[in-house]
Specification:
Helix content: 25-40%
Largest sheet: 3 strands, antiparallel
Keywords: Metal-binding, Ribonucleoprotein, Ribosomal protein, Zinc, Zinc-finger
Pfam families: Ribosomal_S27e
Number of strands: 8
CATH architecture of the largest domain: Single Sheet
CATH class of the largest domain: Mainly Beta
Order of helices and strands: EHEHHHEEEEEE
Structural class: alpha+beta
Strand content: 15-25%
Organism: Culex pipiens
Radius of gyration: 37 Å
Family: Belongs to the eukaryotic ribosomal protein eS27 family.
Protein name: 40S ribosomal protein S27
């Protein structure tokens, strides 16, 4: 229902500005029978209070997850730039040759075949991501 205030034709500027087209529900239309500005003002103020109180209740909802203290398993799975502290997935490692026991430094994501300098044994072969170590080679991650 659309309702125009009956005193819209009065020359009072405040009355003309305050009363514009207003949309009501049926129940509200039955209760608003007094055509003065005070009743409209009280109705709109009460309605505004209801909307603001509903927003406050929804806004204070607690988080379901603690973003400041993520689980280590979740952090490891996450993309290298989207972690809490961004760091790469790659590392350097010391690889011990199974034949001559000589230690060679190898990049974890090496893109070429790494050969032992002492006995020419293949230590690791490249794959799409991390390099695959040859069976029998032992390794340890280097500290940063």
């Amino acid at each position: 229902f659309t309702h125009i205030h009956p005193d819209f034709s009065k020359p009072n500027l405040a009355t003309r500005i305050a009363h514009v087209f207003v949309t009501y529900e049926k129940s509200t239309l039955d209760s608003v029978l007094v055509p003065d500005y005070a009743s409209y003002s009280a109705h709109f103020t009460a309605t505004a209070r209801v909307f603001h109180s509903e927003e406050k209740e929804v806004g204070n909802m607690p988080l379901a997850k603690d973003f400041l203290h993520p689980l280590p398993a979740e952090e490891k799975r996450r993309h290298k730039l989207k972690r809490l502290v961004p760091h790469p997935n790659s590392y350097f490692m010391d690889v011990k040759c199974p034949g001559c026991y000589k230690i060679t430094t190898v990049f974890s994501h090496a893109q070429s075949v790494v050969v032992c300098t002492g006995c020419s044994t293949i230590l690791c072969q490249p794959t799409g991501g991390k390099a695959r170590l040859t069976e029998g080679c032992s390794f340890r991650k280097k500290p940063y």
